[in-house]
Design a protein that fits this description.
This protein has ten helices and no strands. The protein is mainly α.
């Protein structure tokens, strides 16, 4: 008698996840590790080392060195002047200005969050004037990664559905950044500087990760609905109302 062993669905799911994670680690593992080192580990180590010698304020200023220097290095390496790089440079400039004003350590931390507040307000302001910043950032990303797709992307600029998607994304990012800044202010007022340097990157990266994940999902859903609308319009044009109704129902 021959027995057939059915494949374990849970094992297939695990293998599928592993198959996706391993290439990601190979391609971006070094970059992720570098980001963690520069934006999390080094600032904490520098602050803890410098605090007994120079005090809270100067130690906090010293701890901001690695992220700012790394941002400048990345900008110099890519050597592109577009909406994305301008946004990065604005953040660097505001960070430097925040640390040049003096004041107590808490005030310094609060002033640094003005960077996030300012960028969030820029997102909302761009939506208010009808020029959503997400469109410019997406265009800059396409120019860097897949320039051959730029013409197709720009052709959608006057599409009412496309503009609505860009507007919604811009508003969500603007309000999301303001919410992250509000949480960070609460952390500044309630945590020690050491603990804040541990928790703040988690909140910041969590916010950016959540917004990025939502953006991916919303863009995918918007493309799906766009294809459905196009199929419905084509079916209606060719005189197949049944097919058009089926597409609309989906």
């Amino acid at each position: 008698m021959t027995f057939t062993v059915s494949p374990d669905p849970s094992q297939e799911v695990r293998m599928s996840i592993i198959a996706k994670v391993v290439p990601f680690i190979r391609e971006r593992g070094v970059g992720v590790a570098t980001e963690a080192l520069v934006n999390f580990i080094l600032p904490l180590l520098i602050f803890d080392f410098a605090k007994p010698h120079v005090g809270d304020v100067n130690a906090l200023i010293a701890s901001s060195g690695p992220p700012i220097v790394w941002s400048l290095i990345e900008f110099a390496r890519k050597r592109r002047v577009d909406a994305l790089s301008i946004l990065v440079l604005t953040g660097i400039a505001l960070s430097l200005l925040a640390f040049l004003g003096g004041g107590s350590a808490k005030f310094l931390q609060l002033r640094e969050k003005l960077v996030t507040v300012t960028i969030g307000l820029v997102f909302l302001g761009s939506a208010a004037i009808g020029r959503p910043l997400i469109y410019q950032l997406a265009r800059a990303t396409i120019m860097r990664r897949t320039p051959h797709e730029l013409a197709d992307f720009e052709a959608l600029r006057d599409n009412v559905y496309f503009r609505r998607v860009m507007m919604v994304m811009t508003l969500v990012w603007g309000f999301g950044l303001l919410a992250e800044a509000a949480v960070a202010v609460g952390l500044v007022l309630t945590l020690s500087i050491h603990n804040y340097l541990i928790v703040s990157p988690v909140v910041g990266y969590g916010t950016m990760g959540g917004l990025s994940l939502w953006t991916w999902w919303y863009a995918r859903e918007s493309r799906r609905k766009g294809r459905a609308r196009a199929a419905a319009a084509e079916a209606a044009t060719t005189g197949q109302p049944g097919e058009a109704a089926e597409v609309r129902a989906s």
